[in-house]
Amino acid sequence: MPKHASPHLANTLTRFERTLRSMGRRFRLQDVDLEELVQEVRIRLWRAEERESGSASSASYVWKTAEAAAIDLFRRRRSRERMADRLEADAASLPIGGLPSPERRLEESEMQHQVMDAVRQLPETRRVPVRMHLAGYSRTEIADALGWTEPKARNLIYRGLADLRAILLSRGIGPEGTR
Amino acid sequence: MNDEELRRHYQDGMQRPTLGVPEGPDPDLLLHVARGDATEAERLQVLDLVMQSDDLRREYDTYRALAAGAQTAPARWPRLLAAAALLAAAGGAAFWGLSRTNEEVWRGGEGLLETVSPAQDVGVTPPVTLAWRSAPGAHTYEVELLADDGRLVARYETPDTTQVVPDSAGLLAGAKYRWAVTAHLADGASTRSALRSFSLRP
């Protein structure tokens, strides 16, 4: 920390980091994202304190700074990813420790394609909660995210999954996942 | 195909950009959705995109964490009003409200933390032991000890519900001191006691 960072700012940053790490665990953030964000916020607050002493260490200012820093961080990351060859991502996603046979990989790839495509066929009000459910979000999180009651979210997930299985079945993909 | 198999295929598919992941939503809009202040149509549209990509989901989860964290730091005016009402009840605390306008009050728990001893405005013989009731979910307590003019004399962090003020704090016999304790909770929120005062007996 630079010499000119006030004790009050240091205290605010400590509280911010503690709270953010706690939230990070709750929302399953990756450590690398957290570290990058914390560092970005630190730098911005130090600079802000140089410009305008005092206001840089209020709690609401810190969280607004963190939101702005996150937006910039992800904009930069998206830009970098667009520049990188997307084919590399495909290669990087191969499992570590022994590759499956080409036939098995083709089969897995085809199944992923079928599931993703079948989800796309669902009506939006069922598609989105089903996507979130399959991505690993809890029913409470889904309800909160969409501004719904938990029973409504549960009902639409249930109906959406039933629709999804019906679409897959119509394509010859049954309960055992075979065609 | 059961839920787990569907999940596995879907999550594997999310990590494969070749399966046709669309361009991500505008980060500002994504932040609004994470905060919960977007319309239902916007939420559906944005989350439909986000849930097709692992990278977008990381963005969304980061904004959710920030939105939840910001809720532990309420706006300044409600904080000051709450503090003023509280301190007025305790009596003679206008000074505290003025002198602490630049302090953090991160309030997220239910209600105030209750102090036990010393009782309000009593004379205390050293060594001074400050005590308070435990707060559910608290992992650390932060104690602030101030001189009567609001100057910070000492700050301590402890997992316990008592704190002995050491000689090194340099408390003066006959002087009046104020103190408060903040409980830091496991979910990242915190809750604070009312400001109490005591005098040090000669």
Give a structural overview.
The complex is a heterodimer of chains A (179) and B (202). Chain A has 179 residues and is an all-alpha fold. Chain A contains eight helices and no strands. Chain A has helices at 7-26, 31-51, 59-83, 86-92, 102-120, 124-135, 139-146, 150-170. In chain A, helix 1 (7-26) runs antiparallel to helix 2 (31-51) and helix 6 crosses helix 8. The mean pLDDT of chain A is 81. Chain B is an alpha+beta fold and 202 residues long. Chain B contains six helices and nine strands, in the order H-H-H-H-H-H-E-E-E-E-E-E-E-E-E. In chain B, the strands form two sheets. In chain B, strands 2, 4, 5, 7, 8 and 9 form a six-stranded mixed beta sheet that branches. In chain B, strands 1-3-6 form a three-stranded antiparallel beta sheet, with no helix packed on it. In chain B, helix 2 (27-35) crosses helix 4 (54-70). Chain B starts with a helix and ends with a strand. The relative contact order of chain B is 0.13. Residues 92-111 of chain B have low confidence and may be disordered. Chains A and B meet through helix 1, helix 3, helix 4, helix 5 and helix 6 of A and helix 1, helix 2, helix 3 and helix 4 of B.
Summarize the structure.
By secondary structure, chain A is mainly α. Helices cover 74% and strands 0% of the residues of chain A.
Short descriptors:
heterodimer; A: 179 residues; mainly alpha; 0% strand; elongated; B: 202 residues; alpha+beta; six-stranded mixed β-sheet; three-stranded antiparallel β-sheet; 6 helices; 35% helix
How is this fold's topology laid out?
The complex is a heterodimer of chains A (179) and B (202).
Chain A: H1 7-26, H2 31-51, H3 59-83, H4 86-92, H5 102-120, H6 124-135, H7 139-146, H8 150-170
Helix pairs in contact in A: 1-2, 2-3, 6-8, 7-8
Chain B: H1 3-14, H2 27-35, H3 40-50, H4 54-70, H5 76-90, H6 94-99, E1 115-117, E2 122-124, E3 129-132, E4 138-147, E5 152-158, E6 162-164, E7 176-185, E8 190-192, E9 196-200
Parallel strand pairs in B: 2-9
Antiparallel strand pairs in B: 1-3, 3-6, 4-5, 4-7, 7-8, 7-9
Helix pairs in contact in B: 2-4
